[in-house]
Every structure is written in C-alpha cells, then in structure tokens.
Amino acid sequence: MITTAESTWLTSICRPDHPDAVLLLREYMTEMVVRYYGRPDRPGEVDAALAELPSDDLTSPGGLLLVAHHGADLAGCAGLRWQSGWAELTRVYVRPAHRGAGGGAVLLAAAEQRARSAGADRIRLDTRSDLVEARALYARHGYVEIPAYSRGPYAEHWFEKPLE
Fold this sequence. Notes:
globular, 31% helix, 8-stranded mixed beta sheet, 4 helices, alpha+beta
C-alpha cells in the first residue's frame, strides 16, 4: 500500500478472468487499438486484439496480474510473465481519471517487488513508438533501452531494469 497526500494506492494480485481484470484489460486493449490506428475502434477490433494477445497466462505458474485501486476506485493494472531468471512486464495501464496521480509508479514498484520476491534479477518489456508516455515512465523509473529481445508486430522499443 502506498499512501499519498490525496489518497491511498493499493495493489493486489487478481486473476485475468476476474471481472475487474476483464474490465481493465479491455480498456487497456481499447486504448492500444485506438492509439495504433489513430481513430475510434471498430466493431470486433478490440475482441480480435484480445484474442491475438491474450492475458490468460498472467496467472500462476506463468505470471501474475496486479490490479491497482486508488482510494476505492479501480484504477489500473500491470502484468508479469516469468522467464528464466527474469520477468517480462506487460499490460501496464492506468485509467484516464487516475493518470497523473502516481499510479504508474505504484504499479511499477509493485511489479518490481513481486518480481524480486520471485527470484527475478531483472525486468524487461517491449513497447510501441506511439506510447511515448509509457516510454517516459519507464525511463523515469530506471528502465534503459536495450537491443531487441523479442519479436512481435508491436515491439518497437525494448527496456530493461536490473532488480537489486
């Protein structure tokens, strides 16, 4: 739990099929589709994207999904996928009403703590060029760009942060 002057942030592990997680992951993917195409989503596009890039592996033993509450409000999520000795960060999302209140930093810190506790020595992630706010968030929190470690149609920048 992280308490700020405005209110408290709380993160917890949640199954990807829990209604709160389903809602957040759909909002996340809707934003990804809208930003990628630069227009409102069309019928079926978000469902197709959710099917193309599922989150069902964000549960034990392959990973986990964190949900964040800002005060009483459901506010965001972040996922981890376990790799050999490291963790991959994915699905980092803060709902628009809660942006600018420290939620991204809270989710990163919680994911890093969980990864460290699971024995990971670093966190890696990939992201797209158009997600400039996400890239700035990662850089502010000690993630540095690295050469490509993954391949995918949406991977354009790769980051890593050692966990001490």
